[in-house]
Amino acid sequence: MRDPHRRHKQTSPTMLKRRTVLAIAKLSAACFEYSTYAGAGMTNRRHIRTDWLSDLLFEKEHDLVLVSAARALYLQPGATKEFVLGMYAGATLELLARAREQQTRGAGPVDRTALARELLEKLAADLLEYAHRPRDQTQIAIPRRPVAELLACLELDGYQWRGDRLLRLEQDTFEVKDQEGVIEILCRDLGLGGLAQVKHELKLTDEHYVGGRWGDCIKHARDLAECILLDLVTARAVRGVGSIPPKAREQAITVRSELHSSGFFDDKELGFMNALWKLLSEQGGHMNMSAQENARICRQYALTAAHFVLLRFQALHT
């Protein structure tokens, strides 16, 4: 559930996840590095076209300091990838931050986190626009896999590619990406026994989404929520509230029923949870919805339900 105080809380922009930054870097390498094959018995040659990268940065009106840094890169395999990774927390970011501080002397230090997000968001959008151009408008044929991986990572971070623009979804709502971290923190702070399993399920649901395995993504989102509910019913039993159903691990419905009978859920909440589990147990896309969109929404529902029950437990037992 959304924190009622969050609307009024002023915070720095949340950084993109590292998997997303890596996906941006991989797409950059796919656009501006390629190999040629001379023939049998001869060494393959890797071409590093930092001039193509700097041309795109110039075209898309990036800071000229960034354009010059790209053009000056040492021509070795992985150069463009390392250049992008440096925008997250490295030489590229520091170079631009110092340049901006010199331009705005007296304004104080530049917020590195906000600057990194600004750089990476814009670069991701520009690389995607470039990768979606017709073949005669790009220097080389760009493989589809790094494009698809970046799109999936961005969706998990709350973005969507529409037309030729990268948009943030649900700008004024609690970010699902933030929710993942909050769920881990709550499980740890509440002393729940399944923290390692929770982290494992979060990792798997994201990996399957990025890999396009929609059914597996939904399954592990459901497994995550079931793991948390089992932890809660166990923790309540230790506190003398309710009991652990005999077949709790085999039949998730018995856990939800126990939480209802012991007063954790009211009738409407139990009905919602049962309906959600039915949704999370269905495979494939629904009418007028792709399997990918279904997986994204189901994952979000599962994380929101998990966050809700953890907050309820915190309110009741701490």
Account of the protein in words:
With 318 residues, the protein is mainly alpha-helical. The protein has two domains: 18-168, no CATH class; 176-317, Up-down Bundle (Four Helix Bundle (Hemerythrin (Met), subunit A)), CATH 1.20.120. 62% of the residues lie in helices and 5% in strands. The protein contains 13 helices and four strands. It has helices at 18-32, 50-59, 64-71, 79-89, 91-103, 112-131, 144-156, 176-189, 195-210, 214-238, 252-261, 267-281, 291-317, and strands at residues 33-36, 45-48, 159-162, 165-168. The strands form two sheets. It has a two-stranded antiparallel ribbon. Strands 3-4 form a two-stranded antiparallel ribbon. Strand 3 and strand 4 (165-168) form a beta hairpin. Helix 2 packs antiparallel against helix 3, helix 8 runs parallel beside helix 13 and helix 12 (267-281) packs antiparallel against helix 13 (291-317). The protein is elongated and about 65 Å long. The relative contact order is 0.09. Mean pLDDT is 85; it is low at 1-13.
Number of strands: 4
Morphology = elongated
How much helix is in the residues? 55-70%
Count of runs of 4 or more consecutive helical residues: 13
Query: Which consecutive residue ranges, at least 5 long each, have pLDDT under 50?
Result: 1-13
Separation of termini? 18 Å
Mean pLDDT: 85
Q: Strand content of the residues, in percent? A: 5-15%
Strand order of the largest sheet: 1-2
Query: What is the ordering of alpha helices and beta strands?
Result: HEEHHHHHHEEHHHHHH
